[in-house]
TrEMBL record:
Pfam family, one: CPT
InterPro entries in alphabetical order: P-loop_NTPase
Species this chain originates from: Promicromonospora vindobonensis
Gene3D superfamilies in the record: P-loop containing nucleotide triphosphate hydrolases (3.40.50.300)
Protein name, UniProt field: Chloramphenicol phosphotransferase
Length: 211
């Protein structure tokens, strides 16, 4: 009996699409440990003066800065400077390093930075081709009207979700697209789970013989 290669599940979508809720649901159901990693985890590591949220941050132009989005009242987007791009590259390297050790990972949202996303997907694609990891990239979709309602209930600016929904998807070629409009969190988790047990049976049975 040998352990299967680790799973890397990438969950993308606009703000309020349900990425974090879905990540937790899959972690709870899985019979293999899946470490959560993504932008929120990365931003917790960023020194304040390289982040965009601290007034007068000295190095936000080098790290991450917030800019107002024209046409979306009260909405700001994150722009990445050279140090910020290095941090995103480091996050990608950390994800692939965990997979190389045999540790499964759920990526709770990629950046809205095409260069960083292409870099991660290239590294994951190589691991997948070598049989060193099983990779599944999921894109969550939701209609504007429902995103607006969800953001309102969570007391976040509704425009952020609508702005994200107007942008190109983080992944150009996701393995699975789930439209969450009209679905509750359990229904979305069921849809993804049914797909995962086909491509990665060990998620429901723990360690299993490699193919």
């Amino acid at each position: 009996m040998t352990a299967p290669p680790p799973l890397c599940l990438v969950i993308n979508g606009p703000s309020a699409a349900g990425k974090s809720t879905l990540t937790t649901a899959i972690q709870d159901r899985a019979e293999v440990p899946l470490l959560r990693f993504g932008l929120d985890e990365l931003f917790r590591m960023v020194p304040e003066h390289w982040g965009g949220g601290l007034p007068g941050a000295r190095h936000s132009d080098l790290g991450f800065r917030y800019e107002a989005v024209e046409g979306y009242a009260g909405v700001r987007r994150i722009r990445s400077g050279p140090d910020g791009m290095l941090m995103l590259a480091a996050m990608n390297a950390a994800i692939t390093a965990m997979l190389r050790t045999g540790q499964g990972v759920i990526v709770d949202g990629q950046a809205f930075e095409p260069e960083a996303n292409r870099d991660l997907e290239a590294q994951l694609g190589e691991l997948n081709r070598r049989g060193s990891a099983v990779v599944a990239i999921v894109e969550l979709m939701t209609e504007d009207s429902e995103l607006e309602d969800r953001q309102r209930r969570h007391q976040h600016p509704a425009g952020l979700s609508l702005f994200h929904n107007s942008q190109p998807p983080q992944s150009a070629e996701p393995d699975l697209v789930i439209d969450t409009t009209g679905l509750d969190a359990t229904q979305v988790a069921d849809l993804l789970w049914d797909r995962l047990v086909v491509i990665y049976p060990a998620i429901q049975s723990g360690h299993a013989p490699s193919a």
